[in-house]
Amino acid sequence: MSNASAVTPRTQLAMRQESINLVRRARVGDQNARGMLMVVKQAAVKGNARARMSLQMIEEYIRRNPGKEKCRMSFGCTPVVQQIINRLHSRMGGDPGSYVRAVIEEVPQIPDAHHAAVPLANNGDLLHDKGGKPARSRDGNPRIKGILNKLKTPQCHEAFMYGMQSCNRPLNKLQPQGEYSPDTHSALHIGRAVGIARKIQAVRLPNVSIATISPMAAWELGE
Amino acid sequence: MPLPLIPIAVMALGAGAAYKVHRNRKKKVMTPARQKIYDHALNTMKDPAGLRKLGEAFNAQGLTEQGDMLTKRARLRELPADVKAGRRAAFQKGMTLTNPASVEKLAAEFDKEGATGAAAALRKYAQGLPRKVA
Questions:
Q1: Region for A65 from its dihedrals, namely left if φ exceeds 0, alpha if ψ lies in -120 to 50, beta otherwise
Q2: CA nearest A110 in B: which residue?
Q3: What is the distance in angstroms between the Cα of B4 and the nearest Cα belonging to chain A?
Q4: A31/B133 CB distance under 8 A
Q5: At what angle do helices A96-106 and A182-203 cross, to 10 degrees?
Q6: ipTM of the predicted structure?
Q7: What is the residue range of A52's domain?
Q8: Are A27 and A97 contained in the same domain?
C-alpha cells in the first residue's frame, strides 16, 4: 500500500485545510508560507506521495480561487512585472537613482523599495569613500554623491536622507514632514532603497553583525 | 449481564467512542488561536526554555510539526560555536549570491534547521534578484 492511500479521510481534511491556509498566507506576503509551498513542490517532484497529494490540493485551490489582489511583494510575482524589472535592470548602468525611479514609476504596484535595493547592492560599493575607507559624511561615497547630485531641490536631499536613515521601517510607517511633491516622494524611495542596499553590503563584511539586516536571523545564528 | 442493561451499556460505549473521536479531532487541529501563538513564538520569542516548553505543549496536542520546529529553534542557541560560525558564514555567502534559485535553496535549508528568520531574510533578498521569465 502506498503512503498516499494510507492517509485517513480526517488527515486528508487537515491537509486540505493546511494547503488552503498556506496559499492564503503566501498571497499576503508570508515568506515562511512561500517557503513551505516550495518545499512541498520539491518533495512532490522527488516522489513523496503525501507531498504529491498536498500539491494537488494546493493547485486545485488556486485554480478554483484565483488571486484577485495586486502584487504586493515580489519582483517575481507575475511574469509581466518580472519582465519590466529585468528590462530596467539591464539598463541600470551607472545611474542607480534613475533605476529606482523607473521601478517606482513603471511598477507602482510594488510598494517596497527593498526590491530596488538588491540590484543596487550588487552593482558597486555604497559604503566606502574613494580611498576605500568607510564613508562618514552623507556624500562621502561616490555613488551616493552621484545620486544626490541628480536630486534637484534641498527638500529632495532631505527626503533622500530621511529615507536612507529610516530604511528599517516599512514604507507606510515613514512619516515625512510636510507635503511631499512627486519628486520628493521619489527621492524618499531612492533614499530608502540605498539605505537597504547599504545594509545588504554591510552584512557581507566579516565584522558586521547580521542584526544589521535581521535581528531575528542574528539571534538564530548565535550572535 | 441482565438483559435490560445491554442497551445502556451499548449507549455508554457509543458515547465514549464519540467523545474520544471528538477529543482527538480537536487535539490535532491547528486552530486560529494556536496558529497565532505559534506565529508569535516563531517571530518574536528568544527564550530557549520557553520555546522548548511551548514545543512540548504543541507535541502533546499532536501538532508534532510545529512542536518540532519550536524545539529546533530552542536548540539553535545551544549549538557548538563552530556550527554557529559556519551558519553565519553560509548566511553571509547567501547574501552575495546572484542566482535566486541558489539563495532560495539555502533559505530552505535554514528553514529545515528552524532558522526561519534567516530564511526569510534570504528569501527577501532573493526576490530582488533578476530572474528568467518562463
A1: beta
A2: B128
A3: 36
A4: no
A5: 120
A6: 0.77
A7: 4-64
A8: no
